Amino acid sequence: MASAQRSDLIEQTLVGRRAWACSFFYQTPGRRKIRQSNLLTENVDPEKMAFLLKKQWNSYSLTPLYRFSYAALKSYSEQLAAFITAENQKGIAVEVGQNLRFKVAFSILGGLKGTEQDSDAILIQITSKPQFLSPDKQEKLVWSGWLCCTHGDGEFLEKLAGGFTYFPLLFTNGRESLTVLVGTWLMSTFDCCVKNLVISSLNLTWMAAMWTGCNTESSPCATELYFSVPCSPSLDISFQIHPEDIKALWEGIHQSGDEVTQEEVDLLMTSLEYHFYRHFRIHLSATQLVKIATPIVTAHCDGKVKFLQAEHTVKVLTLLTELATTLILN
């Protein structure tokens, strides 16, 4: 199969053969809670959590996986390794369990559940060894990915048919060709669909508002907003706000400690746009917000995200789980 054809499998929604969907209508809420998981510190593996931080992850949404089993993780590792090796050998059949060039490891990634209803996250790591392995050369990690559900929608999970496991989010880091192969294997093995998770400008503004005032382990960081100007040639604008300034502004707007409203988000952005106009005479409202950088996460409209603080990762995953679920249901 050509590379362009494989890419299409990742970039467009594919219709699964089994009817897993339920009659459930979803709208973007006018208010959101800033949630924290009480399960995070109980089950977290510090080494694995550190592995997730400060890497750029490409994010995708997944429909529920059919007949996924935690007891079969070793088998999945062998099957995926054989599939990747066969694809790299121009389709020559490879027996599962052989000594292969690629090795795959599926493992449970604890600490990312928001509720007991959520499925335990799964970490997938792919290593490769050179064709001519010398004693001083080690296997190299060439691709990583993880599946998770954090504070999944309770009503949706209750209506989900038996035999399905819900991981609405897939994050990947590594070779794009391997991302395509892993996506293809997931779809064929679990009869699911994979689609790029696009983050709208509206949801980027929510991220900027919800997490601007979060306390972090490190020194305070500025909040940065990146705008794209609809002109030719293309023009980008970067707006950096000092942490104390935006914190003071947000505290003057925000009413409830654990809940943010659409009105508060709009007021924050309007205030920042007005401040920018006073100094530069540029209407940011005529541009498109494409990226935000806060003390706990950076996120781009194309779905690229970088988690910066372990203690706030669940907060970010909660919103991304909501966005992925919306994408799947609509």
Describe how the helices and strands are arranged.
Layout: H1 3-11, E1 31-33, H2 40-43, H3 46-52, E2 57-62, E3 65-66, H4 73-88, E4 102-109, E5 121-128, E6 140-148, H5 154-159, E7 164-165, E8 169-174, H6 176-190, E9 194-196, H7 201-211, E10 223-229, E11 235-241, H8 243-253, E12 259-261, H9 262-280, E13 288-293, E14 297-300, E15 304-307, H10 313-329
Antiparallel strand pairs: 1-12, 2-8, 2-9, 2-15, 3-7, 4-5, 5-6, 6-8, 10-11, 10-13, 13-14, 14-15
What does this structure look like?
It is a single chain. This protein is an alpha+beta fold. It folds into 2 domains: 3-197 and 318-329, no CATH class; 201-301, no CATH class. The chain has helices at residues 3-11, 40-43, 46-52, 73-88, 154-159, 176-190, 201-211, 243-253, 262-280, 313-329, and strands at residues 31-33, 57-62, 65-66, 102-109, 121-128, 140-148, 164-165, 169-174, 194-196, 223-229, 235-241, 259-261, 288-293, 297-300, 304-307. It starts with a helix and ends with a helix. The relative contact order is 0.19. Residues 1-26 have low confidence and may be disordered. Keywords: Centromere, Chromosome, Nucleus. It holds the Pfam family CENP-L. This is Centromere protein L.
Query: Could you give the order of the helices and strands?
Result: HEHHEEHEEEHEEHEHEEHEHEEEH
Question: For the terminal residues, how far apart are their CA atoms?
Answer: 30 Å
What is the residue-mean pLDDT, rounded to a whole number? 86
Structural class: alpha+beta
Shape: globular
Radius of gyration: 21 Å
Considering DSSP H and I runs of 4 or more, what fraction of the residues is helical?
A: 25-40%
Number of strands: 15
InterPro entries: CENP-L
Family: Belongs to the CENP-L/IML3 family.
Protein name: Centromere protein L
Pfam families: CENP-L
